[in-house]
Design brief:
The structure is a single chain. The chain is an alpha/beta fold. The protein folds into two domains: about 260 residues, Rossmann fold (3-Layer(aba) Sandwich), CATH 3.40.50.2000; about 180 residues, Rossmann fold (3-Layer(aba) Sandwich). The protein is built from 16 helices and 17 strands. The strands form three sheets. The chain has a nine-stranded mixed beta sheet with strand order 3-4-5-2-1-6-7-10-11, with helices on both faces. A six-stranded parallel beta sheet has the order 14-13-12-15-16-17, with helices on both faces. A two-stranded antiparallel ribbon has the order 8-9. The longest helix is centred in the first third of the chain and has 16 residues. The termini are close together. The protein binds alpha-D-glucopyranose. Alpha-D-glucopyranose binds next to α1.
Length: about 475
Amino acid sequence: MEILHVSAECFPMAKAGGLADVVGALPKYQIAIGHIAKVVMPMYRTSFLYNNEWEVVHKGAIQFGESQLEFTVIKEKSDFLKFNLFCIDIHGLLDRQKIYGYDDDNERFLAFQLSVIEWVSKWKHQPDVVHVHDYHAGLIPFFMRYCYDYRHLNTIKTVLTIHNAQYQGWMNWSFKKYFPVYDSWKAGLLEWNNQINPLACAIKCADKVNTVSPTYMKELMNTANGLESLFEFEKGKCSGIINGIDNSVWNPKTDPLIHKQFDQKNIVVGKRKNKQKLCEAFGFDESLPLIVFIGRLVGEKAADLLPEAISNAFEKSNKKFNCLILGNGEKTIEKKLSAIHQQWFGYYHSQIEYNEKLSHQMYAGADFLLMPSRVEPCGLNQLYAMKYGTIPIVRRTGGLNDTVVDIGDNGYGICFNNATVEDIVFSIIRAIKFYENADMVDNIRKKMIKINTSWEKSAQDYIDLYHSIYR
Ligand code: GLC
């Protein structure tokens, strides 16, 4: 089968979150089991773009309201990523440094999607499946099916994967002026609550819809930022497929970013050495358990609860742990996390930035990883942590619920039910107590590193999903 993934992010070209990791890994694993998988994304001006060689493979133009926009498709030349990566450039819209956060994001992603379809419509053969990720690519199934100019694409199957249903790409109806002429009887498919809603449109128009874990799919029927009844209505074509991790990037045995590589056999020594280095760097006493948080500092991840929860846990435990935070996000949360440095000096540090290298060192050197998320469609950090022998402390939600089993149930994590300061503090205290039994901790580590969370199974699940619609 030939699959074209369409996404706003793809690691290592451009990453804001887990979406990039998924789109940068899944195609490799699909290729490994005998399929052709390609990725197309916008050509942001990232360091990856400048540090690699590209060739121009197509030039075309789209009508965009009153103007004609020219676009260029380039392809990474050396193929070291193990899949074809295509980027689309549109002067004035996509030639920017950041992925998101501009006032004209709607225009940018709309022009991107139109260029993708225009380009695909010129392919000599057609892909079997166009696999769109999140709302940034959500209008593609509609355009492919109902625009007169693209009628010949309407037999190509489409799949939507939802990595986050909070963001839906809402636009008012004035944006219609940018759309190619479509069957006006179908206008209702574009709409949700009197607005154009690209995510809702994709849920209605794609042949199959999945989220990145089964529990998240169930949760969406109750809370989906306004789309609950749509999920309920379309549930026949909806499913959950858990994400995997890319073993070639996330493997403590080969990871070049960590201080001491390790595997199952020397995990105890490996963890100790990595922890030593990390504690040295942040002035921590390495005999205490080290609890870390890695992620975007936003309400969805319950990062707003961290300052109070951490302070309470320090007080309650009489400073019996160290805590290291890595991430950036909402300014108020960043400020609050920095404001408690003084009070817990020597035990606490917050590093307010996005830092891929430090994150690897934290997975390798920490004892516990805290994820109190309010919403977690899948979550990859807990999978990375487990692979590096770090015990996850998670709220039972979305993919966290599907991937972490509590130590009380013969599992390997610490799980709690509510995204509240109380539950977080209670779980940190549980972790500190658990850490006192070094043998148990080592056993759990050995157990976790053996769990196979790689993409192999889920990559096949996606192929099975395509087969269910493709004859
Ligand atoms: C989003 C979700 C995260 C998921 C990732 C990849 O970032 O928040 O839970 O793991 O997408 O699917």
